[in-house]
Amino acid sequence: MTALDQYQRLESPGLWRLAPDAQRREVVVSLGEATLVISDLSDRALAHWSLAAVARANPGEVPALFHPDGDPDEVLEIGPDGIEMIEAIEKLRAAIRRRRPRKGRVRLVVGSLTALAVAAAAVFWAPEALIRHALNVVPPAQRGVIGEAILTRMQRITGAPCTEIAGLPALARLADRLPGADGQSPRLVVLSQGLTGARQLPGRIVIVDRLLIEEEEGPDVLAGHILGVATQPDPLDAVLRAAGTFGTLRLLTTGALTDAVLLRQAQTLLTDTPPLPQAPALLAAFQRAEVRATPYARSLSEDEVASATLADTLIRRDPWPELAPRAVLSDADWVRLQGICGG
């Protein structure tokens, strides 16, 4: 967005509230490449809002009240000392609105054609084919927006991600150490509560439980969980199946999913037990990443037949049974990472 260029270094103070019953916090607001970044006074990111989905609750008034579109419970307040930031946000929102279809005849025509397309697809196009089509055409940037939206809704349960400043560089190095099969590194996010193991969100976002860091002697188990979720099916597939035919069509025609779909997916990821990775794909991932499989295998539950079978296979066929060619993280980085949640 060209309108963003002049505001790339702009910051302002504000007050942020995650939920109606949460205490307001003093924050620093800045503009990222495609997001509004809300950080605490120690420069730890608390939330990222997509610029395309920022709404204002009180147009023309100061203090200005902003919230993510469709989620009025989370509120950012910017007062008179942030007038330049308010103007910047409004200018960017106006630029986004100009790119959207205008009211009137064009909207009527487009709406009619869309309605016909929806009706035709619902009748003639099998839901499975529709999902496959969506998985092929939804671009990486939009996947990232969806993943961020799900993560934001998760934070109502989990709280803000762990962002202790000393641990963030180590977390970034771990992400660079574990790229996917296509060579792209994930974005790793550590959650302090509400999650067991690891999950993958659309947009290469991998969320991990702090206990995988704090209760392990080294990073190999954590690396195994990260590699494991990377071998699972496209995370957008589960979102689209939860959205259904008309939700998928809505994404294809408007570029957005409803708040209900995003919230339901956030809750599902936190409460449901994910399927175990398939041994062949996981072993290939351990081989490619030069990570030992045995530590991860030994962390799996021995009380379930499927887990025990997977663990046995990983240990017997570990591509690096004795020592991997290189460490997952240095000892110093592992110690720093263990403090990322502040304790």
How much is the radius of gyration in Å? 22 Å
Give a short account of the largest sheet.
7 strands, antiparallel
Number of helical stretches of at least 4 residues = 13
SSE string, helices as H and strands as E = EEEEEEEHHHHHEEEHHHHHHHH
Gross morphology is globular
**Which strand-content bin applies to the residues?**
5-15%
Strand arrangement across the biggest beta sheet:
4-3-2-1-7-6-5
Tally of discrete structural domains: 3
Indicate the structural class: alpha+beta
Low-confidence stretches: none
> What is the averaged pLDDT score?
85
Helical fraction equals 40-55%
Q: Care to count the β-strands? A: 10
First-last Cα distance:
40 Å
Name the descriptors.
seven-stranded antiparallel β-sheet; alpha+beta; three-stranded mixed β-sheet; PH-domain like; single chain; 10 strands; 13 helices; 47% helix; 343 residues; globular
Describe the 3D structure.
The protein has three domains: 2-99, PH-domain like (Roll); 105-139, no CATH class; 141-232 and 274-337, no CATH class. A hairpin with a 7-residue loop joins strand 1 and strand 2 (25-31). It has 343 residues and is α+β, with helices and mostly antiparallel strands. Helix content is 47%, strand content 15%. Helix 2 (105-124) packs across helix 8. The mean pLDDT is 85.
